[in-house]
Amino acid sequence: MSAAAPPAAFAPRYVSAYLRWSLWALLVALVAALLVTLVWLAGRYEASQVQSKLERDTADALGDIRAAFTRNVQTLQALQSGHPTTASWIDESARLLREHREWIRLEWRDAGLGTRAFADSPYRSPPFARLGRANAQPDVALACANGRRVSGPAYSSSYFLPQLDGLGLEVMELCLPQVSAGQLTGYVVATYSLSEILAGLVGPQLMRSQDVSFTEADGTRLALHGTARRGNRVFTSQQLLDLPGNTMVLRMDSWRGAPDLFPNVLTALVTAMSIALVSVLVLLGKDTRRRLRAEQDLADALAFRKAMEDSLVTGLRARDLQGRITYVNPAFCAMVGFTPEELLGNTTPAPYWPPELAGDYQKRQDVRLAGQHAPPREGFESVFMRKDGSRFPVLIIEAPLINHHGVQTGWMSAFLDISEQRRVEELSRASQDRLQATARLATVGEMASLLSHELNQPLAAISSYATGSINLLKSQLAAQAATAGHDAGGGAMDAMPDIEVAMQRIAEQAERAGKVIKSVHDFVRRRDKEREPVAPLALLDAIMPLVSLQARKLGVRVDIRVQPGLPTVLCDRTMVEQVLLNLARNAMQAMDQAPPAHRSLVIEARRSGASAPAGAGKGWLEFSVADLGPGIPAEIQRQLFTPFFTTKAEGMGLGLSMCRTVVEQHGGFLGFEANRPQGTIFKFTLPVDPAISHRSS
Ligand code: ADP
């Protein structure tokens, strides 16, 4: 892996952070777009409200103008009625002109359009003083021709009339033909000032916030009336004012400011919603950040807990109240050799229970689950089975599993593999045994020194007396054979060879006893023992004469069984023979009260299944001596190997103690067990000659 590449574990984090941020950006963009759209729509709605109000105002203004025009036509008709004189017409006209500022001149014209009388508006200087009325004659003529044609009022198109003060005004002529008895008698011509029409005839409320003007169809402004401009947004409404002979556009401009921030409820609502939305977004963002932090903390805590559980050497297991396994830690799995998948959800019997103990464990668990007995606080020992079938001792400490509501949801157990502890205990027990053996040896040693000292003398004496007796017998036999007759001592002479043999035996046994004592003496003195390879059968053969002798005496049947093909054992021959002899004698003595049919002694040699201790040869032979005696009561069993313990009147109580010491000195083990159906079997092991076991392997 290159150093620059980020660790693979971080990649998904980057991706998810990137994704999260892009989602947030998208959300913010969407909300912004929504807000802009809402504000724009609200503005549009408001503008359309303003526009339609303007349209209504324009229509109202147009209505006002039309109504005023109609009323004015009626007023002019009234002026002509009743055959006025020129003077009265002028008076009446002057009055009308005071009332109607929109008129700047009224004229009474005859049928040939000649002016009979006229009156000017009192509100301004004579309007035609600068240009001259004749200039407007074509407009008047056109209007009157139209009026004549439609037999009613007609208007001229507007024209600009310069004034003396340098300014000017846009005016329009109204011509009203006068017909009397079907004959045209003349015309009334009224000159309208367009700006005064706007100022006087349009309701003032309509012009409060807007300009009103007349324009031509192409937009050229003819007259304008209005207030000062405010704001910068222009709403415009145009409607056609079509009069007979003239068509103008009435236009209204409203200088409404751009929509205020809170121009109406809708915008206020939208704004409030937007603020709420943004606040919610901010809160959501904060909450998400907090949650992310909490999640991170939780993940850290979980990782720490897992690391802790994984590094524990103590096995942990949780079970629910039904006894199902709900949790195991790696140490427990390593201990029993099963994977968590194989263990979780398992009920009884658990896969790590040794089948032979499953019944007991089941009972224990039933008691535990029934809540009858709390587990011991200091824990208890048990035996578990690994997946490979091997057993191992464990220390179990159990406690109820209480959740955060204080309710028990199961059981939590901790396990310690105590095989190692057991091994150490075993070692110390073995060394204890060795110490005891040494102590025994010391006792036996003292005894042996004493005995060897005390017995060697009499044994030597016995031996020499026996030898002396044999010599005496021999010389006696030779002398008698030479001097006496055959008849004289014939009976004594016949017994002589037997006595000689018996004497021979006495000498042999005395020598053997001497050897035994010497070897015990050597043995306890820890001199180098002479170990030699001996065939098991040879050992048994050596003791057979003495065993048979005693067997015959006690009426015991002796059975020797030697597994064929046994290797030789490496041992101190005399001592081992002594052990066998001792055991056989004990066995036979144990059966002296038994019915003769039950007096059976079995001495057996075979291969042992015991594993060799370190440093010993590759195999073991087991020798056993079985009897059908009464067996050994428990209280005697405890003291069996104690030196000088005996139940026999003439017993020494040293036999078994010596036997065990001898066997242990060879590295073997001597023990006993009950024989079936009755009696006792004493067994001991001896190492196979290493040279043999190497050869055979
Ligand atoms: P001793 O034979 O001199 O009594 P041992 O050490 O050989 O000393 O034996 C101790 C005791 O063990 C005996 O007194 C006897 O009670 C008991 N014992 C030994 N072997 C047997 C046996 N095969 N059956 C029953 N008891 C036995």
Outline the structure in words.
The protein has 4 domains: 62-254, Beta-Lactamase (2-Layer Sandwich); 315-417, Beta-Lactamase (2-Layer Sandwich), CATH 3.30.450; 434-527, Helix Hairpins, CATH 1.10.287; 530-696, Histidine kinase-like ATPase, C-terminal domain (Heat Shock Protein 90). Helix content is 48%, strand content 22%. The protein contains 15 helices and 22 strands. The protein has helices spanning 11-80, 86-99, 137-150, 194-201, 265-311, 330-336, 340-343, 358-369, 419-483, 490-524, 536-554, 573-590, 634-637, 655-665, 690-696; strands at residues 103-110, 115-120, 154-155, 159-162, 168-180, 183-193, 210-215, 221-225, 233-243, 246-256, 315-320, 325-328, 380-385, 391-402, 408-417, 532-534, 557-562, 569-571, 600-607, 620-626, 670-674, 680-687. The strands form 5 sheets. Strands 1, 2, 3, 4, 5 and 6 form a 6-stranded antiparallel beta sheet that branches. It has a 5-stranded antiparallel beta sheet with strand order 12-11-15-14-13.
Outline of the structure:
With 697 residues, the protein is an alpha+beta fold.
Gyration radius, in Å: 72 Å
CATH third-tier fold name of the largest domain: Beta-Lactamase
Give the overall shape, derived from the CA principal axes. rod-shaped
- Summed up, the helix count is 15
CATH superfamily membership of the largest domain: PAS domain
Tally of domains: 4
How far is the N terminus from the C terminus? 52 Å
Rounded mean pLDDT is 84
Based on the coordinates given, report the CATH architecture of the largest domain. Answer: 2-Layer Sandwich
Spans of at least 5 consecutive residues whose pLDDT stays below 50 are 1-10
Q: Helix share of residues?
A: 40-55%
Biggest sheet character: 6 strands, antiparallel
Number of strands: 22
- Tell me the strand percentage band: 15-25%
User: Ligands in the structure?
Assistant: adenosine-5'-diphosphate
Structural class: alpha+beta
CATH class membership of the largest domain: Alpha Beta
